[in-house]
Design brief:
With 349 residues, the protein is an alpha+beta fold. It has one domain: Jelly Rolls (Sandwich). The protein is built from eight helices and 22 strands. The strands form five sheets. Strands 1-19-16-21-14-13 form a six-stranded antiparallel sheet. It has a six-stranded antiparallel sheet with strand order 2-3-10-5-8-12. Strand 6 and strand 7 form a beta hairpin. 39% of the residues are buried. The structure holds 1-hydroxynaphthalene-2-carboxylic acid. The site of 1-hydroxynaphthalene-2-carboxylic acid (1HN) has 11 residues, from strand 3, strand 4 and strand 10.
Length: 349
């Protein structure tokens, strides 16, 4: 926006005298501060599950879930090495819990989502209620809720964690507390929240006390059935195929205030039109296979692969067979602040 000012020895000498007084000239940095378009350190990135899985299993031989507290390989955006983030505002990692293991109870101000990758029937407990994890389930651990995980099955359990860690860090609002027992007392039966709040019904006098969804597991069989039924309507969005967002049934808003997840179906051979939005988005391939062009990058994905679309970077997806993609972003934050934008005619990626 603003062309850089010419540097002269006299000006430079002045800047050097400003610095000890904790002063700096705006005109030297204005162009970098206020850009015409988003300039993100986040770059398009891709993780092939077939490559990550052996290293996750190696982590399983080197450290227990108990010792690690959470045995996770962080998916670090290569544009921000060492920063523990997958986009500028969000964190993601792949977590492994082996048969017989426990990941002890704790709580923190960061909100977390889980998207289940492999395994069948290990549990996560949130505020006294366990839910069993199945592939494709979307599970939330809202801010400041107690949570622990355990695997009482015979198979390894792997899921993708998504947290708002960088965002909360930027706001200097991180708090955390360890549980006083490794596992929480079970105070509600399995399935309680879904029955109470997730069936198009609500307890008659219930009023939401927080912006967070009272449902904490959105099982894949139900999400998949919704896509299966709706695909018969045949009204494909040119940029998204058939794309649904997960909601807090009490408000219609996102399940957690900082992260909006989505589930979308692309019919066989479907090519989406070039699209961009200001919310950098993390995708997980669930079914099928395809290719996504993100800026200048091109990634061929299969189930369990993860990829990232940075803010304002044009994306096009092309499905091979019928495909399902899960994704999530910080869209609710941007919308609450009046910052979110999209462009449905993005220059061809
Ligand atoms: C966390 O609590 C979990 O509860 C996973 O499974 C990943 C990454 C950073 C901080 C807390 C979990 C995490 C995390």
């Amino acid at each position: 926006m603003h062309a850089a000012a010419t540097s002269t020895p006299e000006r430079q000498a002045f800047y050097d005298r400003l610095a000890p007084n904790n002063l700096a000239p705006l005109w030297e940095v204005l162009g970098a501060l206020i850009t015409r378009e988003p300039q993100s350190p986040c770059i398009p990135a891709f993780w092939r599950y077939g490559d990550v899985r052996p290293q996750l299993m190696e982590a399983g031989r080197l450290i227990t879930a108990r010792e690690a507290e959470r045995r996770v390989l962080i998916l670090e955006n290569p544009g921000m090495p060492g920063k523990s983030c997958i986009t500028h505002t969000l964190y993601a990692g792949l977590q492994l819990i082996l048969p017989g293991e426990v990941a002890p109870a704790h709580r923190h101000s960061q909100s977390a989502l889980r998207f289940v990758i492999e395994g069948n029937g290990a549990f996560t407990a949130v505020d006294g209620e366990r839910t069993l994890m199945r592939p494709g389930d979307f599970i939330i651990t809202p801010s400041w809720t107690w949570h622990d995980h355990g695997n009482e099955t015979e198979e390894p359990m792997v899921w993708l964690d998504g947290l708002d860690i960088p965002l909360v860090g930027f706001l200097d609002a991180s708090f955390a507390e360890p549980g006083n027992a490794e596992q929480q007392m079970e105070t509600k039966p399995v399935g309680d929240s879904l029955a109470r709040y997730g069936m198009g019904l609500m307890p008659v006098d219930w009023k939401p006390a927080t912006p967070t969804s009272p449902v904490f597991n959105y099982p894949y069989d139900r999400s998949r059935e919704a896509l299966e039924t709706l695909k018969r309507a045949d009204d494909w969005d040119p940029c998204h195929g058939l794309k649904l967002r997960y909601v807090n049934p009490a408000t219609g808003g996102s399940p957690m205030p900082t992260i909006q997840p989505f589930m979308q179906l692309l019919p066989a051979g479907f090519r989406t039109e070039s699209y961009r939005s200001t919310d950098a988005t993390i995708y997980v391939a669930v079914e099928g296979s395809g290719t996504s062009r993100i800026g200048d990058a091109s990634f061929h994905w299969q189930p369990h692969d993860v990829f990232v679309v940075p803010s304002w970077c044009p994306v096009r997806h092309e499905a091979g067979p019928e495909s399902v993609l899960f994704s999530f972003s910080d869209r609710p934050v941007q919308q609450a602040l009046g910052l979110w934008r999209e462009d449905r005619q993005a220059r061809a990626a």
